[in-house]
Structures are given as structure tokens and as C-alpha cells.
């Protein structure tokens, strides 16, 4: 039997340690907590489905690691030329098994997603070839890679031509226009899964699969490259399962699980990946060189965590849409739509809204929470961008982060959260920031909804 005095003490201690109490101390108003609780009750079933997808992907990753007999030696890494780096080479086999491809290139020397995409294109296109994007305008940074905006070293400088087919009004592939756009010179078709800095819907893996099938049926000789950034592990299938020749992404997004300190991957056919390897290092050297230094462990461990980390980020995105729609903002995807990536766009309509949101996300970070993000000109982007990130890995956007270009419709692109608990808090902090500036009104707890 507990001493009565002690029982009282224990009760008060536990009250202080309740999430509600701590969040109030961290600046979240009771009305917002109440609203958040109501919204989350309605999301239980969806969150269960996300957990189920994470389970499938966890098993895929686990199976691939077991099949390739990963052991402690794989974490040793290499220096100098990086010859005989079993950790690096077997990690590439693990990626190939997870993506169900013949081969994969997973390297520290691939500096970011743009580099991985640029590499996949430059390695597999030759002068006189044409690249065709069938998902409309590609991600901003690719404009200079391709030469849509003239740039030193672009594919255009190497006589690689480029054309694009817009998505239809409803965001779907325009199959008739694609058929017409294919010419004898078309060598590669590019598809971007995620919306990037656009407010179109992101494409589902099934839609992408249908497009790959369509192109390959008409022209089996054409390569298909999919920009898979932010899409990994959101579904149980990946574009590679539908025959994409190259599936490409960044390790400081989903597949790095927040632990990979850098890097990119290309999973695909032996032929395409081999081309990428010799272009990344040098003809004749290819994949034999490239020291992994000390990052193999983080690559493996990050991949191992990636399915659940992605699931947490996905829950954050859905929660954000549900909360901000209540405040009258247009959210893309909307509160109820299925998800094809971890990005949530929220249109604030004014620079003040976008800036307040990003300040809130920054204030919720574990690192650099005390700094104020400012709009700034960024290399590769054609207008000022505001970015909020207090990340363990610089620029990592699988960690809780938000960014948006300072032009209409003043959309914040919100993503990540290494844990769902952190994503949830960050979203509340951002909403609170808007309320503190009278940009939104939070109902008082008594009002309910
Ligand atoms: C992030 C991203 C890229 C570029 O990746 P970086 O690592 O920022 O260079 C390309 N495409 C899409 C869709 C992205 O989300």
C-alpha cells in the first residue's frame, strides 16, 4: 500500500510530465491541443495503414540485409582509392534487392539528389539524343542540369536535346501527347514522382508504372528514369518494380533514414548503373574506386530505419493537412487524398503566412531552434527561398523541415520528422506561430468544433 503522502507526490509529478503540460510550457495553447486531439482521433485508421506499409518495407530491407549476409566487417569502410570495400559493394546489392533491380550505385561521392539525377542523365545520354520529361516541368535544380535555363556544363552544351509533355489538367499523364512526342531521337523518358516545388499532385507508383508500360510498349529501346526523391517507402512498391531503368534519389531524404550524412542512389539495370559508375568516377575505374570512409554503418542503419522514419514523416504530412485545412488554407495533397510522397504543400497566400510557418518549424527543431530563418537567394533556384531546418545533418529534409519560394501562392513545402512525435509538435508550433501573429484564430477549448 502506497503511503498517501507519496501517492500525492507521484500524481503531481505525473501531471507535470504529461505531454499536454509540457507542450503548454513549450508555448502551445490549450485550444490548439484540444483541436489536435480531435483531429488525431479521426486519423487512427489511416495511421494503421501507414504502419502496415512500414511493416512490409521493414521486412523487405531486413530480408535484403540477411540475404547479403551483412556482418560487422561491412561497417569498416575504406580510405584512399577504396578498393575492395565490401561494405560499400554489398550495400549496393542490398539496395538492388530492396528495389528489385539488377544493380545499384549507392555512394558518398554522389553529393545530393540533383547530382544523382544529373549523373543518371549524363551517363546514359549521348550527343544527338533527346530526353523527354513526361511529367511536365522537372524539379527546379534540374533546369540547369538539362539546360532549360542556360548553364555551364548542362546537357544542352553536350548536344542533348530536351522536350517535355505537360501533365493533363487533372495531374494525370497525357498518353496521347506522349505518343506524339516520341521521336526517333528520343532516348530517355524522365518521370518525377514527387511534385517538388509545384502544386500539382504527386504521382502514384501505379500511375508511373502505367506510363512506363505505355512507353516501353511503343518503344522498348527507350530508357525510363524516375526521380524518386521523397517517394521511397511511402508505398509497398517502387517505380523499379514496374520496370524503370533507373530509380534515383537522395540519401538525405527517405532512404537514408536520417542517419546517412550524405549521398545518393541509382537503382536500375546493370547497363544503366554501369554507365553511371564510369561517369561518376572515371572510364576504366568505374565502381571499383570510391572510398566510403566511415559512413557505411550509417548507410546500413539508416536504410534499416528508413521504413519507419518515412512512416512518421507521412503521418506528419497528413496531420498537417488536416490541421491547416481547418484554418482555411488550401493543402496539397488535401486532408483525405492518398499519399505518394512525404511532402505537404500548404498555400498561405501571403509572405507573412509562409514566413510564420517556417519560423514555427524552426522553433520546434532540436538543433538551431533559437535562430530565425530568412528568405534568401539559393543556388539552383530562380527566386528567394525561405528554409527552416534545425537538422542533425545539414540540409537533410527527412528531418523536420519546411521551405518555400517567395512567390505566389506562397506555399510552404513541409516534410520530414525523424519521429512522428517530433513532426506532430513541429506542426503545432507552426500553427501557434500563425495564431500568435493573428493570421489564424484557434478556437478556445470550450468552443470545440
Ligand atoms: C529534393 C529533390 C531533388 C533534388 O535533390 P537535392 O538533394 O536537393 O539536390 C530533385 N527532385 C525532387 C523531386 C526532389 O524532391
Structure description:
The protein contains 13 helices and twelve strands. With 449 residues, it is α/β, with parallel strands linked by helices. It folds into two domains: 175 residues, Alpha-Beta Complex (Aspartate Aminotransferase, domain 1), CATH 3.90.1150.60; 216 residues, Aspartate Aminotransferase, domain 2. The strands form two sheets. Strands 1-7-6-5-4-2-3 form a seven-stranded mixed beta sheet, sandwiched between helices.
Secondary structure elements and their pairing?
Layout: H1 4-16, H2 19-25, H3 30-41, H4 44-67, H5 86-99, E1 103-107, H6 113-124, E2 130-133, H7 142-146, E3 161-164, H8 175-181, E4 186-192, H9 205-218, E5 223-227, E6 246-250, E7 264-268, H10 270-280, H11 296-326, E8 330-332, E9 344-347, H12 351-363, E10 385-389, E11 401-405, E12 411-415, H13 420-436
Parallel strand pairs: 2-3, 2-4, 4-5, 5-6
Antiparallel strand pairs: 1-7, 6-7, 8-9, 9-12, 10-11, 11-12
Bound molecules: pyridoxal-5'-phosphate (PLP).
Amino acid at each position: 500500500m502506497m503511503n498517501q503522502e507519496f501517492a500525492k507526490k507521484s500524481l503531481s509529478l505525473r501531471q507535470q510530465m504529461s505531454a499536454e503540460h509540457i507542450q503548454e510550457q513549450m508555448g502551445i495553447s490549450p485550444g490548439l491541443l484540444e483541436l489536435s486531439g480531435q483531429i488525431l482521433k479521426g486519423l487512427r485508421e489511416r495511421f494503421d495503414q501507414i504502419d502496415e506499409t512500414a511493416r512490409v518495407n521493414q521486412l523487405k530491407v531486413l530480408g535484403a540485409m540477411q540475404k547479403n549476409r551483412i556482418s560487422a566487417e561491412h561497417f569498416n569502410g575504406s580510405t584512399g582509392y577504396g578498393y575492395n570495400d565490401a561494405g560499400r559493394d554489398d550495400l549496393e546489392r542490398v539496395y538492388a534487392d530492396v528495389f528489385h533491380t539488377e544493380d545499384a550505385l549507392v555512394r558518398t561521392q554522389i553529393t545530393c539528389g540533383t547530382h544523382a539525377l544529373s549523373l543518371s542523365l549524363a551517363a546514359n545520354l549521348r550527343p544527338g539524343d533527346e530526353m523527354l520529361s513526361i511529367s511536365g516541368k522537372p524539379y527546379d535544380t534540374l533546369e540547369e542540369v538539362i539546360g532549360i535555363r542556360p548553364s555551364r556544363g548542362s546537357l544542352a552544351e553536350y548536344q542533348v536535346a530536351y522536350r517535355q509533355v505537360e501533365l493533363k489538367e487533372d495531374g494525370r499523364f497525357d498518353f496521347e501527347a506522349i505518343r506524339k512526342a516520341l521521336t526517333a531521337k528520343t532516348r530517355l523518358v524522365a518521370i518525377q514522382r514527387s511534385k517538388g516545388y509545384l502544386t500539382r499532385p504527386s504521382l502514384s507508383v501505379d500511375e508511373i508504372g502505367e506510363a512506363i508500360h505505355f512507353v516501353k510498349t511503343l518503344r522498348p529501346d527507350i530508357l525510363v528514369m524516375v526521380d524518386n526523391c521523397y517517394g521511397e517507402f511511402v508505398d509497398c512498391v517502387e517505380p523499379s518494380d514496374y520496370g524503370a531503368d533507373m530509380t534515383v534519389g537522395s540519401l538525405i531524404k527517405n532512404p537514408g533514414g536520417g542517419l546517412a550524412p550524405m549521398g545518393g542512389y541509382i537503382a536500375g539495370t546493370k547497363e544503366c548503373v554501369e554507365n553511371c559508375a564510369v561517369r561518376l568516377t572515371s572510364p576504366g575505374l568505374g565502381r571499383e574506386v570510391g572510398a566510403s570512409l566511415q559512413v557505411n554503418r550509417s548507410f546500413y542503419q539508416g536504410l534499416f530505419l528508413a521504413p519507419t522514419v518515412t512512416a512518421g514523416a507521412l503521418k506528419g504530412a497528413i496531420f498537417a493537412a488536416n490541421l491547416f485545412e481547418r484554418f482555411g488554407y488550401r493543402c496539397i495533397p488535401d486532408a483525405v487524398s492518398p499519399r505518394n510522397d512525404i511532402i505537404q504543400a500548404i498555400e498561405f497566400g501571403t509572405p507573412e503566412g509562409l514566413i510564420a510557418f517556417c519560423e514555427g518549424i524552426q522553433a520546434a527543431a532540436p538543433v538551431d531552434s533559437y535562430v530565425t530563418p530568412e528568405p534568401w537567394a539559393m543556388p539552383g533556384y530562380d527566386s528567394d527561398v525561405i528554409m527552416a531546418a534545425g537538422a542533425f545533418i545539414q540540409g537533410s529534409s527527412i528531418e523536420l523541415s519546411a521551405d518555400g519560394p517567395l512567390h505566389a501562392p506562397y506555399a510552404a513545402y513541409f516534410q520530414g520528422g525523424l519521429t512522428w512525435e517530433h513532426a506532430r509538435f513541429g506542426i503545432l508550433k507552426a500553427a501557434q506561430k500563425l495564431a500568435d501573429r493573428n493570421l489564424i484564430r484557434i478556437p478556445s477549448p470550450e468552443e470545440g468544433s
